[in-house]
Amino acid sequence: MNSTFFKLDWISIILFFTLVIIGWSTIYSTTVTPLDQGLFDLSKPYGRQLLFIILSLVIIVLVLSISSKFYERFSSIFYILGIFLLFGLLFFGKTINGQTAWYSFGSFSLQPAEFTKATVSLAMAKYLSGLNIDLKQFKHQLNVFLILALPIGLILLQPDAGSALVYFSFFVALYREGLPGFYIFSGLLAVLLFASVLLIGSLFTALIVVFVVAAILFYKTKTRSSRLKPLVVGIFSLAFVFSVNFIYNNVLMPHQKERFEVLINPEIDIKRSGYNLYQSKIAIGNGGFTGKGYLKGESKQGGFVPEQETDYIFTVIGEEWGFLGSVTVIALFVALLIRLLYLAERQKKPFSRIYGYGVFGVIFINFFVNIGMVIGIIPTIGIPLPLFSYGGSGLWGFSILVFIFLKLDSERKTLGS
Amino acid sequence: MRKFFPILLLSFTSVIFIVRLVFLQFVDHEQYAEIARKQSSKAEYDYPQRGYIFDRNGKLLAGNQASYDVMLIPKDLKEFDTIELSKLLNIEKEELQKRINRAKRYGYRRPSLIASQLTKQEYAYLQENMFKYDGFYIQKRSLRDYDLDIGANFLGYIAEVNQRIINKNPYYQSGDLIGKQGVEEYYEEKLRGVKGVKYYQRNNFNNEIGSLENGKYDVDSEKGQDLKLTIDADLQAYGSKLMINKRGGIVAIEPSSGEILALVTEPTFKPSILVGRKRSRNFTDLWYDTITKPLYNRALQAQYAPGSPFKILTGLIALQENVVTESNTVSCFGGYSYGNGRILGCHHHVSPVRMKSAIAHSCNSYFSKVYLNTISKYETPQLGMQKWQEHLKSFGLGQYLGYDLPVGRKGFIPDSSYYNRAYKYPTYKWYGTATISNGIGQGEILTTPIQLANVTATIANRGWYKRPHILKAINNNPIKDSIYNVKNYTTIDRKHFEPIVQGMKEVYEYGTAKWVQIPGIEIGGKTGTVENKKVIDGKVIQLEDHSIFIAFAPIDNPKIAIAVFIEHGYWGSRYAARIASLMIEKYIKGNITRTDLEKWLLENSPKEKYDKIDFMVKHDSILENLNFNE
């Protein structure tokens, strides 16, 4: 235990807890009222969050006290356990806001999807670190996709599209481990084309595609195969561009369409479907350069922004701490993420490295989607800001996820040498 | 290469986030801050008491009474029993719904007026039930209260602002009150004070959660300022009393200061009828009364030919232009012949006459002659006419006087270009004789009663006037250093006024007004009779003359200058001279000794004439009054 203590990466830990503390003080700011007494008032979110933080310390100590071999060896068991927990929700789950995502124990609820991020990471790392696994082979790709598809499918049944989206972050790790670039490339291209069609229409998007493909063909005419690729991509892109409207109108649910509509045209329906985003932007914009000051946000005090202690917590940072505070928080996240990448790359064991990339991906996608949604650059997707948003499951899930990795990292030399 | 993909993702994300934050928190910051402030605050208005209006002796002309309005903020509206509320407000259910819809159109977050000026009983009952109606609240305001109930024509009235005013001036909101007409309009900003506003921060459940930014945007209400007018309430009331059943105006001015002592117009109305819930019905009645025109301020707006009092000005100009001296005489053979056998008739009096007695006897021949001499003194009649017009302008004629009331007319003093146009100069030439009726105040000249009163004050001062005005003090601080304290000198030398004044004195001693003398007071005056015609059914009909009189007293050290105008009052001394005489006595002595004269005025009026004319006008298809050259 003592040896582990000194070998832990303290930079990550400090960044982790700095974010947790800023997050808690923001929760305090959103939910404190003049009549409250004491920080441990369990009827208040900030009081409960403080308890969650303390409990997370217990969990962290537990996580760190277990040998890293244990995680590797039992990763499949953890995965299966996680799948069972998700499956069990279908029968025993508690429904909150239309999502059957919680197990309820008295006044506390647990959200298994927050914990399966870690178990899926472990399982993936275990599978990919297998001796003859080659992600160039379609069979192996299929297995990995199955590992991911199972939790994604169960989470979509809750239904919680936001949490399901998180599992796509594992493509970052897969790409690092040799998954053909085709997947990432076509995924990003699809997103780009989809956004482009919604913003400037299918005709203009198609023209741009044709123009770009023609330019590539014109400059890259050395070999036949190098000409074929852009052509195929161009044809598929065009097909996709003209099917976007169909997808938009027939596949997306009405509330999902609304989320795109309010993003493209913020003035639309600011009383109903556009309300969250409109209020969120007002709060952040109101902050200006230095912010209104801690506890002094007008929009926050008015409670105009919904869910401001959970999904919209970044608006409070924006309003009370202004541009300076917002950039600081973003910088802290980026620092933590870069540190995690650095740690992952220094692992000698593929299992640890792959797991590290999984951790990076999960935190990154939460960070990107949450803040992106709050500041209005991607459509509303309800996922929390990691380490910030109120909620025990989220905090514990991220604690377990990160500290398993720090434990793996702390034992890297003894294992590697 | 694949190692750098996550770094690329992170950099890309950070840049996008920061650019977006720059837009939100720098570029559009002001705009978002404004919305945040507005939506998180609720404004509570505090309407200060409107300033009181007193007369020159401190008598209260306009005070205040409390009034209660029901307001609505549509955003906060919840389901409620419309039938019950419409009963409480004493309006139809459909009408209530209509007003609610109008409020929604006006603005979801802005307060709109639903029912105005509730009585105390209605208020008390409604107050108990108000909690049932979310979005509705009661706004206390102050309404006018008129003790003496006089002077509607110069006080003006208070009305709710309309949409046009709200759009023009952001100070006002739906349901706010504003001064209309008279002193209330002219001194609106002083009288209204400053509306107080407190912003409360509130959450989206509409609960107040403290003051907005420690009251940074709050405004303290300031009580309206009290105005002391130059009006003498007793004299004003007495003037109104004497004007019973008559039509016309009285303007009395203190010559030394230009202060308006009385401003009477008849027909008029009591100011109290434009207060409370009857206001709009009463106002409509007044507005549509196009026969007696009670909203028409005859003392300020009516333009009549001045008639004989104008001869005084003709005389003064002639003296100044040296075309006559006070001792020159003119023979009068019962009229003045100005060529081709045309004769301007005259009254019976001794002949020949000089200036003083010409005024006393209002000799047409004399003034026609000196007028012609004035015009023809110069090389061309145009030059003479120009000079004549300049002299008249220095008396404030033919232009706005610049008094502090919102309505007025310029009157009309013709100049050479007017006659050039009329006579198609230079194709045809014209001479002074063509304009001869100007000399005796008929012709094209138009003056308002207040202009005539000002001319009278100027004569009383022997050559200067201060602009007539109605405001004496604000919050008991006398008005100083304003345009109303400046002496405006006429182009006539002081020495020429004395013979004229003596002539006006003789009007009372031997002349046309000798039977309305006031024992113990030396008065200078001049009667007038103004011909007037109306086109009725396409025919020009000669109507009963207007009766006119100007006077000032005492001759030395004048205290009051007055002009009285009675429409169709027959000749000058029948009504106008009597009224002027009583007004002067009332002001200088404070009481009336000639009660028989007063009684006669209360009992007599040209009412029959009015009925006859009104009947003709009512049944006329083409309404056109020749007296109003427009």
Provide a descriptive summary of the structure in words.
The complex is a heterodimer of chains A (417) and B (630). With 417 residues, chain A is mainly alpha-helical. Helices cover 71% and strands 3% of the residues of chain A. Chain A has one domain (2-179, 252-416). Chain A has a three-stranded antiparallel beta sheet, covered by helices on one side. In chain A, helix 11 packs antiparallel against helix 12 and helix 16 (313-345) packs antiparallel against helix 17 (350-374). The mean pLDDT of chain A is 89. In chain B, strand 19 (524-536) and strand 20 (539-553) form a beta hairpin. In chain B, helix 10 packs antiparallel against helix 20, helix 13 (310-320) crosses helix 15 and helix 16 packs across helix 17 (416-422). Chain B folds into two domains: 42-74 and 88-229, Penicillin-binding protein 2a (Domain 2), CATH 3.90.1310; 233-625, Beta-lactamase, CATH 3.40.710. Chain B has 630 residues and is α+β, with helices and mostly antiparallel strands. The A-B interface holds A 172, 175-176, 178, 184, 281-289, 298-299, 301-304, 318-319, 322-323, 326-327, 330, 334, 337-338, 341, 345, 357, 360-361, 364, 367-368, 371-372, 375-377 and B 2-3, 5-7, 9-10, 13-14, 16-18, 20-22, 24-26, 28-29, 31-33, 35-37, 39-40, 201-205, 209-210, 212-213.
